[in-house]
Amino acid sequence: MAVSARKEEQVPQPYNPKIVRLAYSYILPAALIMALITFFPLIYQLWMSFTNYSNINLRTDSLLGQMVGVWFPTLGEKFNSPQFVGLQNYLSILLNSLGKVLSGFDFWRILLFNLVWTFSQVVFHVVIGVAVAMLLNAKGLWFKKFYRAVYIIPWALPSLVASMIWKNMFDDQFGSVNQLLRLLGAKEGVRWLQQIDPPAPWIPPFVRLPAGSNPWLGLFIFIVLLIAPFFWSWFRQRKWLFIPWAVGLQVLFALPFWGPNAATASLGQLFPLSFYAVFIANIWLGWPFMMTVATGALQSIPKDLYEAAAMDGATGWQAFWAVTVPLLRPAMVPAIMIGIMMTFNQFNVIYFITGGGPLHQTEILVTQAYRFVNETSINLDGVGNVRPYAVAAAFSYIVFGILATITLITNRISRATEAYSD
Amino acid sequence: MIDKTISLGRQIIYQLLALFVLGIVLFPVLWVVSMALDPRDLARPTSLVPPGASVKAFREAIESPTPNPVSFGELARNSLAIALGVSAFTILVGTTAAYAFSRFRFPGRQAGMLAFVIVLMIPSTATLAALFVMLNIVIGPTLRNSIVGVGIAMVAGSLPFAIWNMKGFIDTIPRELEEAALIDGCNANQTFWRIMLPLAVPGLAVTGLYGFMSGWTEFVLSWQFISNPKWFTLSMALYGMQGQYASSTPWSKFAAMSIMVSIPVVGVFFLLQRFLVSGLTAGGVKG
Fold it and tell me: Which of A43, A254, B11, B197 has the highest count of CB atoms within 10 angstroms of its CB?
């Protein structure tokens, strides 16, 4: 979803008033509707996030009256307005104090899990997708068309249905995965979606930073270790397939330095068994998209480039790095951007397979946002046990900020790529 | 390495690899088909065509998919109404706006585009709280608790995407035809209706199909908005079937239902695969 206002004509010309009037009349219906149901809810949500809005405020005679009533007590009483609480909702999320009233909630852990989930997934999607596309690109392979058609089934299937099927397959008693393991000699069924203990303790567990140390320190170390090398390798080496590897390694290295608070420690580590279950399912779902994009790009690579490479004595592996990778790049980078955004917000897979569980260990930001609106109730000071729409609103704005940051970064990367490929 | 036809030895290795991938891709699909055909309601299929295979589960899923007195037909009608209504409405309203953003220069154009990009990033869960509360107050809890409420909330998210996507498509149509029409004496409106619209039909179709496919399996909004069984959608019924424990899920019925829900989407996808892929990359990224 790249912004590309930059390609517009640079020379400022006077507007033609006739055209301008025409343009506005063409836009008017869509603009009115979007103003009402797309942009106004965003503003409304911002207002909500600064109040203690909850389900008890739902009954009111006037939407606007209720909004204004926050600042005018007489109106507020009339329209059942919530109270103004300033930044409290945001702070309770960012500083994890919400974890006290909502057991298991840890914003930074969810964010970290979401990032690890996204980048590790996309690496697998791209590597498998490109590999299979190359396999099917071999000249003279039999049944090529058949394979290409069948391989996109996981992508064509509605992800909601696919996720529910995978949930069934990971069932500990009846699921196909455990039956397969039993065939291979496993005695007991693996409790894929319920087991709380991590299955692979050798993956570095959290190391707790000393008590009382700054919670931002962990994030700082994480950024330095994860993101800086990412950019460094991007700009210096240009062999972009290294980047996924670099990210994967950095994640492993960064983990031990991540300092969770006590709530996190009780939640076990970042990779519970259910993580592997959703991981496998989402790889199954995600790679055909990358394969399709890579297939198109592979077919447009001129054959004489390979001939030239062969004449220069390049081996197949060298030709891959020197010809295939650079020429795949312009097509793959936008696809990777789409993949990152889709995986980051992969609601269906997480919600329908693990439900974020066990103990919220596989929750991502969008599923948590949904939970706030849909099923969470919190004991708010002076209000009682309510559905915290205000907290949900604040949480959504934080998620929105994170998404905007990611879009900005990916945008910059694809812009760098465009310049490189021109 | 690519130019030469591969040798027989390589052919065999490649075929084995391809079959391996095929197995992984098809396994969950076959698993579900087998489960749906099995009349014994077992959670573990034994073979692809189980003993005594029947379409009993399909019949059950059509007659009473949920504990509530709603038939598959009614669920499908609700899902279809959301899917068709939302995609038709967004195209109707969005096409002229997409055309204006693609062809006209006017103050506020850049700001408008930026607004689109920002809105496109927002996942539908993110404005859920505000939409729910707003619709509750503005159109009332009864209407909110129906496919009308879900439809309005879906348009909020899909209209920006549709405009963005159609603008991407219109950008690829050469301007010469419109210029020729203007010279021949068409006014701007005639140019749009007579020249532009027929040329843009493939783009509109793809945009509509995206809307349809997301509306057909919409879950997030309907699960939050709808509690009246009369307005339940297919995805809600499917989710409802997945009991807390494996033993309480009607497996065969669930499998039959998921096949019936998937078939329209998969069919459309295969028919229009090429357009869908190019539509996604052209509209979503190149802008």
Answer: A254
